[in-house]
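hey so u asked for the seq, here:
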Amino acid sequence: MTNTLDDRTAGGGLIRLDVDVEGMTCASCASRIQRKLTRLDGVDSANVNFATHKATVMHDPSVGLDDVRSTVQSLGYDVSSPEEAADPQDWERHLWHRFVVAAVLSAPLVLISMVMALQFDGWEWVALALATPVVFWSGWDFHSATLTNLRHGSTTMDTLVSMGTVAAWTWSTVVLVADLPGGHVYYEGAGVIITLILLGKWFEARAKRRSGDALRAMAELGAKTARLRDGTEVPLEGLEVGMQFVVRPGEKVATDGAVVEGHSAVDASMVTGEPVPVEVGVGDEVVGATLNTSGSLVVEATAVGSQTMLAQVTKLVEDAQGSHAEVQRLADRVAGFFVPVVIAISGLSLIGWLVTDHSAQDAFTAAVAVLIIACPCALGLATPMGIMVGTGRGAQLGVIIKGGEVLEDTRSVDAIVLDKTGTVTEGRMAVAGEPVAVPGADPLDALALAAALEARSEHPIAAAIAAASNPAGEVEGFESHAGRGVTGSVRTPVGVVSAAVGRRDLFDSVPGELEAAMVQMEAGGATAVLVGTETADGSLDALAAIEVSDTVKETSAEAIAAFHDQGLEVTLLTGDNRRAAETVGQEVGVDRVIAEVLPADKADEVRALQEAGHRVAMVGDGINDAPALAQADLGIAVGTGTDVAREASDLTVVTGDLRAVADAIALSRRTLSIIKGNLFWAFAYNVAAIPLAAFGVLNPMIAAAAMGLSSVFVVTNSLRLRRFRGYRPPRSK
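ran it, structure tokens below
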């Protein structure tokens, strides 16, 4: 049976199909399947990841699952449903059993072959009996994969192992049976090669399983049931949007929702990486799978199933783990032609030794050593293991790296632009005190007029004003002027009033006393908003100034110090007035402030920095930040922001803590560094070892040990990313 992990419509009319691929044993298997799928009519692109054993195919409606399945099967592999996918631990146990048998039989095999004092008459026949099950039972996976691939006219890393060991066993058996004079048997070589490579593959499988622990743990974080207000307990699948459920102290929040009753501290560290529990009360949003630590809460579900933040974050990380980094392209090109070239070098080595009057044994030993040492498993694992472990660690820290190509971008950025509201500040604005009004105007009436208009807007400043007063009446003809304010007609008890709320440039006239009041408000870092009405001659005159204040996040200054530590020049970009922006900028320590920028012009400011020679990272959280996020060389959305901002970004941090952005950049750079280290050592190992083997310096057994160790090195080097510590303190146990 075959099934899909995910099959949904993507952009441009393409359909995305995710499947598990079974039977891959090395990176060249993945490359071959990917090439074949890409050539399939109707397929736009395909990506096959050896580390995760998953394939993602973007195709048009003419292609179906059966087409993909038959294509994969034609190459000797299979696809399976999530339920049927092999358990990584089963594969680990399979390798371990084969290794134990090989090790038990190879130990006496090596002793009687290498220690002359232990040799007796006919010991070669005992060696044959010991080596045969090792080569053909323990090593059957290599031979099976080789035969499958040869039937389809291709070669893989398994081909090298199979050819080397079978050649050693066959040559030895011919020498033994034919009793060739001066002939030497290599049973111990074949047995030890299989044993060491199985040990290396077992280490590799174990480490790969551990590298996926972060994602598996995240997927299993959520609660299994929800307790409704009437005490009924329902499975999570039965929970629907709008239903209200109770979260008692010590319980996990069943799904994303809004608190409608109660107050508590919620530990969201398992999703956001936040080290400190967050206080929540009525009206606050909570995320599914987070832990309620103290009070009892009643929560109304706002998202369930695949729409929850946890499900979407898990999906994003899965996608990232299946992506390729730019540095992978070289490894892919090498893997494509590597095996045939190695077989040719092995043949030339054999011929070279024979024509230079060396013995057939020496020539044979050198040729086998070339086949064994050249197995480029480490090369194939270098990039996917780094991405897999790095993105998994990022998920634990609340950092979503959207793809391998993002890693290169983080290395090159030298400037970072921060949106102010909701990014550097809390974004929870509130009206401070009573508005300042011109003589003859009632400040509370002005506030009520502003509240009526701003209730139609989604801007944080608008929400603060709308929450500060009851609206003066119904609104007609509402119009939003991007970055400047809103206008409309308010039907008040005394008649219809044409009114406006917004910045100075929205009004035709601003009295001097309001100008003075605004200067005083802005000098303190607050935002001054004017409210006014239309006069008989059609001009808009300001009547009152409303002070709206926001709080700088406690961690913003630390985050900006971290950006400086990473060599980044920090710019604060905001549509707010200059005085308020500069006050905030000085408080947190940015290098530059660009203020009073309309939303549509934010992308232009980013472009100007790029034209000045900078590689720019942009951090934002709102819809109005989306163009700038897309324009930047590296777009970073903070997770409290909108879906549009997250979609336009390259990196997402699922927390409002700005230090997580510094963590995201540091982790991405660290991951890229690990990948480059892996590729360097994988290339260096093959480049140095193949000539040594060809010239007879390396024994096949040593070659096998070195080949296995190179893969283990790449995997363990990647696992170092699991110990990555960012700028935020670890959460308390």
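The first strand starts at residue 6 and ends at 9. The two ends are 44 Å apart (CA to CA).
lmk if thats what u needed
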